[in-house]
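Sorry, I am new here, but would you mind making up a protein's amino acid sequence and the tokens describing how it folds?
***
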Amino acid sequence: MSFLNKPTNPALPLPTPDYSRQYHDAHNNVLRLFFNQLQNVFDKVLGRNGGQFIDCPNGVFFNTTDQAFTANDTAEPIEFDNTYLNNAVRLWDPITDAVSTTQVQAQVSGVYNFQYTGQLLSSSGNSKSVSLWISRYDAAPTKAGSFVTGFRYEIITVGTTNFTLIGAAANTVGTVFVATGPGTGTGTAWAYPDVKYSTRINTIKDNGHYVEMTWNFNIDLAAGEAVELYMSVDDHYTEVELAAPPATAPYPAGASSVLSVNFIAPLPEPRPTLPP
């Protein structure tokens, strides 16, 4: 990547009590050098091929192994076991604050373009509908008093909150519940990843054929929020999988899933409502 020389703050000489041409000449020379540095930066950034100097968040993640479905009509998070590029976009779980194999976190607020490709391999002629959708994770837990009725949450800290009064079956960390009220006290909970963004469905019935499932979408993410892609199959789950093609001459091995993420615009205010 090409880099620009960052202009340094001008070290202006200390003024003299009386008029001094030498002082003014030195003062002007320092400013002239500073403005020349600024002009050089603007000329390069605003000139031809200036985009090479813009360092935007991006990431590319892929899976070199097969991923099988575990049951019919079951949400399966799509897995990635390798990172190719990661600049302020990483595989990270915001809830556990640890490395993830399924969640992609943005470290800079903005609108991001996600491009996903999955290689589905069918091993029978039975008709199978494979669904693909997105879940978005919040960047920070919700405090008692701010729970939204009808939203699902996972208890992170109990504190002085009685979660059983607002829909939880138990007042323990890890319990997932649908809020029936805002709650009170000092407890916190994560908005459970049921903030979903659309669904794509492909029907597959070829035996022994690879079928690509692709999706190109934009989504707004605040710093720290994460996206997780999910798949499910409606029937014959043992007869379809995300498959990484093995190397066979003359072509190299492939990935079962590839995801590229690119920053494209600042985060809008107010934030938009996710489409269906």
